[in-house]
């Protein structure tokens, strides 16, 4: 048989291993929320660009990234030369936040009809950055002046 000390030691080791596994799974789930949000942003940008290229509704299309409400950051697809009414809105998960645009700000990325290039006065790239709260994990989505969309992750 086993002594009481051996049973307590085995139970303690099992509890520690269980806690480590649960912690790793929670962190992995949170990281997937960050990656999934970046993927949804890329999808929204491609959708707006595609709708501009095909002149859907006879209009240009864009995506607004809003960090005006720190509790409800979102991005929204819109049609027309400026953001008025979104056609679809996606809120970021609770564990994910924008670092660009900064808190209190918005960023609009508008695509030109027929070319799909960005339609703004900004000379260089526009980067939207997401961060997983309480970590250094970030995902960035960059749109060049020519309309090229790229995604990058960093730690």
Characterization of the model:
This protein is an alpha+beta fold and 155 residues long. Helices cover 32% and strands 31% of the residues. It is built from one helix and eight strands, in the order H-E-E-E-E-E-E-E-E. The strands form two sheets. Strands 3-2-1-5 form a four-stranded antiparallel beta sheet, with helices on one face. The protein starts with a helix and ends with a strand. The mean pLDDT is 92.
Q: What tags apply to this protein structure?
A:
four-stranded antiparallel β-sheet, alpha+beta, 8 strands, 155 residues, 31% strand, 1 helix
Helix content: 25-40%
| Main pleated-sheet profile | 4 strands, antiparallel
Radius of gyration: 22 Å
Mean pLDDT: 92
How do the SSEs run, as a string of H and E? HEEEEEEEE
- Number of helical segments with 4 or more residues: 1
What's the count of strands?
8
β-strand percent reads 25-35%
Could you give the order of strands across the largest sheet?
3-2-1-5
Task: Summarize, please.
The protein has one helix spanning 4-53; strands at residues 61-66, 74-79, 86-91, 96-100, 106-111, 126-132, 138-143, 149-154. It has 155 residues and is α+β, with helices and mostly antiparallel strands.
């Amino acid at each position: 048989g086993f002594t009481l000390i051996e049973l307590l030691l085995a139970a303690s080791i099992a509890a520690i291993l269980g806690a480590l596994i649960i912690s790793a799974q929670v962190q992995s789930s949170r990281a997937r929320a960050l990656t999934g949000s970046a993927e949804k942003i890329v999808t929204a940008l491609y959708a707006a660009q595609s709708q501009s290229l095909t002149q859907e509704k006879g209009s240009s299309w864009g995506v607004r990234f809003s960090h005006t409400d720190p509790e409800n950051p979102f991005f929204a697809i819109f049609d027309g030369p400026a953001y008025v009414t979104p056609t679809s809105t996606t809120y970021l998960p609770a564990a994910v936040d924008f670092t660009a645009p900064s808190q209190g700000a918005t960023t609009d990325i508008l695509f030109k009809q027929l070319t799909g290039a960005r339609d703004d006065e900004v000379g260089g790239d526009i980067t939207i950055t997401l961060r997983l709260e309480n970590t250094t994990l970030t995902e960035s989505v960059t749109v060049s002046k020519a309309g090229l969309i790229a995604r990058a992750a960093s730690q």
